[in-house]
Amino acid sequence: MKLIKDFMQKLGSKNSFGSENVVNKKGKLFLINKKLHENLQSNFFYAGLYLGENKLGKFSPSLNLLSILSQQIANKVVIDKKASWLFIYGKDIFRERILKVNGDTKKGVITLVLNNFEDCLGFGEIIFDLDKKPNKGEAAIKNILDLGDFLRREK
User: Fold this and answer.
1) Are 46 and 83 in contact, with CB atoms under 8 Å apart?
2) What is the pLDDT at residue 155?
3) Could you tell me the pTM of the whole model?
4) Of 7, 21, 97, 149, which is least packed with CB atoms within 10 Å of its CB?
């Protein structure tokens, strides 16, 4: 539970899920409601909404969790159509492709990446302060996880 809370705080989210609503099954974390929690058996495979996984002490979020967080106040950037396509193919984001920034803009900050319809595409790390002018051809946000990751792993 602490891993999710820490990850959410890195994104600037003030909210967290109650520990009674999060179930850990072999390192995989699920968000469930009270009724499901009361009827849940220990041998379940999948329950509720998959939030992510504890991988060697590091939290790997699901796209479901990122989508929930994008609806809240959090660090997020909105990018243009071309950058959206490049991002879901695993590419980094250039400053000139960023349409809007919410939250922290400093180097090292984790931020959600949204398309111009504000659908969550994934998340990345800001690799230089977004309020500064970048060098030509220099990426502003390093891609950490995107929607296309699942398909690329299926080779």
Assistant:
1) no
2) 59
3) 0.89
4) 149
